[in-house]
Each structure stands twice: as C-alpha cells, then as structure tokens.
Amino acid sequence: MSSNELTERVLVIASGNAGKIREFRQLLAHLPLSVQAQPKDLAVEETGQTFAENARIKALTVAQATGQWALADDSGLSVEALAGAPGVYSARYAASDALRIERLLQELKEIDDRRAHFSAALCIASETNEVLLEVEGRCEGLITHAARGEKGFGYDPIFEVDATGTTFAEMTIEQKRQWSHRGCAFALLDPALQELLHKQNKP
Ligand SMILES: O=c1nc[nH]c2c1ncn2[C@H]1C[C@H](O)[C@@H](COP(=O)(O)OP(=O)(O)OP(=O)(O)O)O1
Ligand SMILES: [Mg+2]
Known about the structure:
Maf protein, 34% helix, binds magnesium ion, ribonucleoside triphosphate phosphatase activity
C-alpha cells in the first residue's frame, strides 16, 4: 500500500439510492478519496421542509453513525402545474419508480403546461457533527407524455432537459453529469472539496 492510500480520507455516500451512488462514484472518481456506501441497515427519516434541510439531516446522521465524512444528496422534481409537487416528496410519491412515473403522467394527463425542474441539495458533514460544505443545483425541463430512454433511474425517462431536448434516460452518464441538477451542484462542490482535502493533508 502506498503512503497516499494510507492517508486517503473515507467519504461515505449517505444514500440508499443505487442510481445516485453510481453517479457519485463517477463524480468523485478524480479525488483522493476512498468512496464507501452507507451501512445497509441505516434508514434516515427525512423530516425537513426543504432539499437543503433533508441533505443536512442525512449527511449529519450518517457521519455520526459511521464516524466518517458523509456526503448526502436530497433531490426531487418540482412541476409547475402542480404548484411544485412532488418536490421534497418525490421519493414518497408512490411505491416504485414505475408507479411514480405512472402517477405523474396521470396527474398531468389533461395539462398542457409541462414545465418542471429538478433540484439537488448536497451536503458534506464531518464525524464531529460539522456541516463542511453545502450547495444546490437545478435543471430546467419538461415532463414528457411518455417514457423515453433506458438509462439512469427514477424519473429520468419522463424528464426532457430544455438545453438538449433529450430525457435524462437518453443521456450517457457523462451527458447527465453535464446537464443535471446533481452534476451542476457537484461542479460547485468540487473546488471547495478539493481545497478542504488539500488543507487536511498538510502536516
Ligand atoms: O437525477 C435524477 N433522476 C431521476 N430521478 C431523480 C433524480 N434525482 C432525484 N430523483 C428522484 C428519485 C427519488 O424518487 C427522489 C429523490 O428523493 P431522495 O430522498 O433525495 O432520494 P432517495 O430516497 O431515492 O434516496 P436517499 O434519500 O437515500 O439518497 O427524486
Ligand atoms: Mg430519500
């Protein structure tokens, strides 16, 4: 083992969502970090009113439970014609990705205004109960009339990005990184995280 590996900091991804974890592994790949999944038995109650509050709750809880730095993501889809719903309740909208998509398409059946946006709040907390970094990202788009594309997760097949005309599910992981709420939030986090890691490694 090299000395570099010995000093590599652990960052736990405070999420139970395999799609998010896959994206974070790609987003974090260039950093000198040992990226780990959160313990399987850990369930955190998302009692916040905002994405930022929920991201904090998840990051602080998982950092405390694991004794490591933790990165949390709270995200969701806000639909203009539904007054911002499902928003922070996006995961609780129905019991599975397929049912969540079905319900949203049903709710918008007679509605012409398809405007929507995805939001992501990211938070890194330390094992000493400190919030180290917080950022938010957003992506504007439209809810399609039917699912398109096979890639990604969650609501990806029915969210068409304004800037590209394609759904997230039609994008490669690199394209999704470029346009998505999570990719945009991470672009803000990345330089600050690099600086933190750099400071930490100084004797
Ligand atoms: O890029 C995305 N593409 C498609 N769908 C997405 C995306 N980003 C968030 N979403 C959906 C998934 C979930 O239904 C809800 C987030 O809820 P949220 O509580 O943050 O995540 P979650 O419960 O799935 O996992 P966890 O809290 O353990 O990180 O919005
Ligand atoms: Mg959740």
